[in-house]
Amino acid sequence: MTTPASDTSTRLAEWQQAYTDLQSLGLKLDLTRGKPSAEQLDLSDALLALPGAGTVTDADGTDVRNYGGLDGLPQIRRIFAELLDVPVAQLLAGGNASLTLMHDTLAFAMLFGLPGSPRPWSREEKVRFVCPVPGYDRHFALCEAFGIEMVTVPMTADGPDAEAVAALVADDPSIKGMWVVPTYANPDGSVVSREVAERLVSMPAAAPDFRIMWDNAYAVHHLTDVETESAPALALAAEAGNPDRVLLYASTSKITFPGAGVAFMGASPANITWYKKHLAAQSIGPDKINQLRHAQFFGDAEGVRAHMRKHRDVIAPKFEAVDTILRERLGTSSGASWTAPLGGYFVSLDVVPGTAARVVQLAKKAGIALTPAGATFPYGKDPHDANIRLAPTLPPLDEVRVAIDGVATCVLLAAAEKAAA
Ligand code: PMP
Questions:
Q1: So where does this one cross the membrane (predicted)?
Q2: Can you tell me the distance from the alpha carbon of 38 to that of 36, in angstroms, rounded to the nearest whole number?
Q3: How far apart are CA 395 and CA 415, in angstroms?
Q4: Buried-most residue among 3, 109, 267, 300 (CB within 10 A)?
Q5: What CA–CA distance (Å, rounded) separates 366 from 411?
């Protein structure tokens, strides 16, 4: 049944008025990036006093002030090896950003090729990556930076659509890799099930050097007391006879201080040897003082888990507020739907197709900054113009409430405009 024109125009007038009211509030709110709030950063302030004057050695007796130790400090690697389910010998601890490790992996692959590569990727006619969508914009930016073509597959509640991936990689040797955020994915919060993980690590791939960039950025970032474990990708890949397929990344960016944390890379012995060979030309060793300070701060893996529960206490109410307000304002008849993640940093909002860019524009004009529409898709192009990533961690709770209420008004106005057009 179509809506009578008068209803459509009445509704449009109503939402236009609500929007004018919203604009008159003169807001200046930011839901663009998944940054921890100041209250979360405060949780790690003890780091600022560590390792403390006079502490110059780690638990193994290494003087952390000096050059060396390309693999990173064993003390911090032991803690994260347990959390990330990687043998300590197969986990490197590096600088402050896992994105750097992902970038350098791709740069080394381009320049030198990976174990199993017939030639450096830059000498291939074409290099393509499978990108589950919606996904993380910086993964797509890395592909663009290296001229890697992106092919999309849909995300499901259990992670990437494994059958779609398997069909793509089976007979196309130009597909050299794929992105996976296995736990609490950015932005839809889904968790890769063991079955999906098994399929991805065991599916036949035409490229002999096919890699899964397993970016476990949110492995320990639970929003409820259900502390979901990530599928043990490296072990599953080894069991499936493809030990070199998985490259795992993680960092303490959203555990302690983004920008001053520690990043990790886990991989098979062959991949680790390969990476270290190229790393050795770049660096004599990482910042071991920062790694030691993190190891002292956490103590052990349980220390990390306990610390993450403090983060949860700060941010879970913000995610609850997003869900409550969207339910109240958008209900079930607005044509919008959204995720209620059990962890991670984002809510993925799907609005009426063809209106996401308009919603972001309306929000901007009302003083609410949102991640650009399309950012969750390769090349910034959402074919349905429907997906918006909401990042509610940074603003204080009362501001989150105001911002999401404002976003709901923009969603309703954009939908009414489309219906009236
Ligand atoms: N991967 C994912 C999936 C992320 O969401 C983020 C942060 N937004 C990163 C990596 C960045 O990690 P890092 O700070 O370690 O570079």
A1: none
A2: 7
A3: 27
A4: 267
A5: 13
337: CB partners within 8 A, 6+ apart: 349, 350
Task: Give nearest CA residue, ligand 1 atom 4.
Answer: 217
User: Among candidates 170, 171, 172, 163, which has minimal Cα distance to 199?
Assistant: 163
Q: Is the bond leading into 392 cis (omega within 30 degrees of zero)?
A: no
Contact 237, 201 (CB under 8 A): yes
Residue nearest to atom 5 of ligand 1 (CA): 186
How close is the Cα of 400 to the center of ligand 1, in Å?
Answer: 22
> Which residues lie closer than 8 Å to 123 by C-beta, 6 or more apart?
none
What is d(CA 296, CA 79) in angstroms, rounded to the nearest whole number? 11
| Beta pairing, strands 263-266 & 91-93 | antiparallel
- Centre of ligand 1 to C-alpha 98, Å, is 7
Q: Are 260 and 290 in contact (CB under 8 A)?
A: yes
**What does the pLDDT look like over 46-62, one tens digit per residue?**
999 999 999 999 999 99
8-state DSSP, 69: -
Residue 326 corresponds to which tokens in the numbers above? 């969207």
For residues 308, 314, 317, 318, the Cα torsion angle rounded to the nearest 10 degrees is -100
Please identify which residue in the block is written with the tokens 């950025």.
Answer: 217
Structure tokens at 188: 């839809």
- DSSP-assigned letters across all residues of 347-392: EEEE-STT-HHHHHHHHHHTTEEEPPTTTTSGGG--TTS-EEEE--
ipTM > 0.85, yes or no: yes
Instruction: Considering only CA atoms, give the Rg of the chain.
Output: 23
Strands 246-251 and 263-266: antiparallel
Give dist(CA 108, CA 282) in Å, integer.
11
230-285 tens-digit pLDDT: 999 999 999 999 999 999 999 999 999 999 999 999 999 999 999 999 999 999 99
Q: What is the pLDDT of residues 295-341, one digit of tens each?
A: 999 999 999 999 999 999 999 999 999 999 999 999 888 899 999 99
CB-based pocket (< 6 A), ligand 1 = 34, 97-99, 136, 181, 186, 215, 217, 251, 253, 258, 263
DSSP SS3 for 416? helix
